[in-house]
Amino acid sequence: MSVSLNKGQRVDLTKDRPSLKNIIVGLGWDVNHYDGEASFDLDASLFMTKANGKVGKDEDFIFYGNLEHSSKSVKHMGDNLTGEGDGDDEVIKIKLDKIPSDYETLAVAVTIYDAEKRLQNFGMVSNAYVRVVDETTGEELVRFDLSEDFSTMVFGEIYRHNGEWKFKAVGSGYNGGLKALCNQYGIDAD
């Protein structure tokens, strides 16, 4: 049964599902058409962080420009530029049992490409959501709807606690786009 979360809420992913190994993070949105406006391009990304809350290396940032982590535990399935069609528009696959033990948190972020230049934010996009799905069964475990007036947001964190994987709905918006977000996680985006 899916849990629709609000900011700050947490849910156990593996405690009641000890067989849960493979999850999908899906991002979906519908296109709003406004006269003279550029199209919306939402991008899902993930930061694999250590105990200090920072990435160990730039390659720990998984996004459309770096599709797979060297451990093969996280794989971005590619960039969708339009949001057209049904279902998830961008997908990140995660193998929980393959994530190296020195990584504690997987921070899932969503950005709108070129949002500052185009004056766009999530409040201007219809039906934008991020969800976590059990890849084996197809069961939606967690869902978070995006409607903030930001163009860059950390949606949530998948984190390891006492040997179990949990999910925390963060919903923190960032000004300054992807560059500000990268700096937050220890990546020099200059």
Concise synopsis of the structure shown:
This protein has 190 residues and is mainly β.
Q: Look at the helices and sheets and give the structural class.
A: mainly beta
Largest sheet: 6 strands, mixed
Distance between the termini: 42 Å
How many distinct beta strands? Answer: 12
- Widest sheet: strand ordering: 1-10-9-3-7-6
- Uncertain segments are none
Strand content: 35-45%
Q: How many H/I helical runs?
A: 2
Cα Rg: 16 Å
Please give a structural write-up.
- This protein has 190 residues and is mainly β.
- It has 2 helices and 12 strands, in the order ββββββββαββββα.
- The protein has helices spanning 115-118, 177-184; strands at 3-4, 10-12, 22-30, 42-49, 61-62, 74-76, 90-95, 105-112, 126-134, 140-145, 152-161, 164-174.
- The chain has a 6-stranded mixed beta sheet with strand order 1-10-9-3-7-6, with no helix packed on it.
